[in-house]
Each structure stands twice: as structure tokens, then as C-alpha cells.
Amino acid sequence: MLSLDRMEQQTVFIPESDAEEVEADLVIIGGGPAGLTAGIYGARSGLRSVIIERGALGGQVATTPVVENYPGLTQVGGKALVDLMATHALQYANIFQGEEVMDIRPGDPILVLTNRRRFMTKAVLLATGASYRLLGAPGESRLSGHGVSYCSTCDGPLFKGKKVIIVGGGNSAVTEALHLHNIGVQVTLVHRRDKLRAQEHLAQNLFDNKIPVLFDTEVKEIRGKDRAEDVLLYNLRSKQTKPVKVDGVFIAIGYTPTVELAKKLGIELTPEGYVKRDSRHRTNIPGIYSAGDVEGGYKQIVTATGQGAEAALSIFEDLVNPYWKSKQATA
User: Fold this and answer.
1) CATH code matching the domain that covers 148-251, chosen among 3.50.50.60, 3.40.50.11890, 3.40.50.10330, 3.40.250.10
2) pLDDT tens per residue across span 296-306
3) By the 8 A CB rule, do 140 and 43 touch?
4) Is residue 23 within 8 Å of 48, Cβ to Cβ?
5) Is 247 marked active-site?
6) Which residue of the set 5, 108, 151, 194 is catalytic?
């Protein structure tokens, strides 16, 4: 069922009528920090819990070279942290890696259909995560984790006293620029438009702190042999291109939540495209819950694990005192 290392494997589709049937109390879709934590808390509450992950366990964490802000571990490789979480979760929950959820059919029980199995369950937790929007500039992917970052909270302290740029002009980009400035990083904001899209008070804070902004400017290339060393900037007004020496590039142009299954189910989304849920992680579909980055908010490992624990405990309490069944009956 599980390999802690990502394995390339051909997707196999088994007809629904021939698929193995698995009974569970809780099916968790997504094997990142939120999903793995939910598996632990769900099983420890007495729920038969399974985790389904179509790709590599750990999500974005698995590709993070160094994690320095996870409580209790001053410095740990992202892959090592994922392995710790997965090994812990395996003590409680079954993990089905390399399986893709094709359909979810609400009811009593809920049917979760993958390319290999049929899961009959009382509740489903969507912990499908979100991915950073990529800039698409040459050198970005090659130097990701080697001077190119998408998280100032995660990697900012590595650049104290060094020169970096942040690409973006919205709330996230300005917030990250202010964070880097406050921890002693020499930061310049690069934005392709002629004005910021961030809220006025954030933009004013940026200018009050005298953080330089290069408007009407695009990053055409990120260059360097083993690490980011400079960027090629193109000015949309002057039509001129120039190289600028940097130690790091932070890209803050938003996230893309993984909500294909949520949309297919008819789950309500926020205006930003994330899963809309109540304070106990319930969606508008009875028996379907959410946790982690797919809900938006702070994209941090510790918040994802906390939300995974909260959601699992809410599900347990709802199954003991069936909130969602009463909602279903009145729907």
C-alpha cells in the first residue's frame, strides 16, 4: 500500500464492479501534513481511518530542502519530516499511495471510488492541499530550493543580511516583503503592473519602511549555476533588459487550491477559490469535511497539522452525535 519514497508507476484503472471494497469510518483524501495528522487523530478516536494519496506523501513539504520553523525540530529536511509523519500515521491508519480518487458519491454510506478500490465510509476529509503558482521563468524550477523560494516564513532567516527580490504585487507579496525586511533581509519588490494590488494599509506600510519597488517590471530569467545568482529584469515601459545580482528570489503570486473533487461534489468555495467550511471544518455537503491548505489561510506545516487534528476530532464528535445526519435529513 505504501512506499515512503515516491515511485513512478503506471496508473491502473479497475472497473468499479471488480474493485476491491474497503469499509472505513473516515476516508482522508490527501497525504500531506493535514491528512497524515487527521489519520492519527481519527484512528486514536476509534475511527477506522484510511488515507488516499495519488502522488508523493507530504505534498510541498517533501520538496522543501530545510524546515526550521516546525516546533521541536530546529532544523530538519522536508523529506525527513514527511517520513517521520508518515511512519507515525502508519501506526494507526492504512495509507493507499498511488491511488487517485475518481468519484465521491454522498449518501449513507458515502462511496469513494478510486482507480483501484471502492471505499464505503461514514465521512470524507478533503485534505487535497494547494500548490504555489509558478512564475514560469527559465531557471525557476531548476533553482527551486536553491535560492528560489515561495515562503518567506519558511526560508527568510536563511537570507538575513542578503539581497533578495520578491515577485508579486498583492497582499501576499507585500506581507512577505515586510516580513523579510523586519528580519534583516535586503528586499526589493518586483511587480509587472504600475501599481500594487495589495490593500492600501499594506502598501503604505511598505513605502513607510522604504522598501524599493520596481514597477512595470518582469522577471525574464533566474540565473545561476548551483544557486540563484542574478535575475534578468525586463522593464515594460522602457523595453530594456538588465541583470540584477541577488542571493534569492521569493515568488509570491498566489496559490492554486486543489479543488477539482470539491467542485465535482458541488461544495461551496470562497471567492478566492478555496473550500468554504464552518468553524468545525464541515462543508455544505453532509459528511464531507476539509482541512489544510485547501481551505486557504496560512500555508504553514504547523497550521495544516493543527487543522487536520481539529477536523478529525470534529468528525469523531459528529459521528457520535450525528450533526451531519440531521442536516442530511432536513436537506
Assistant:
1) 3.50.50.60
2) 988 889 999 99
3) no
4) yes
5) no
6) 151
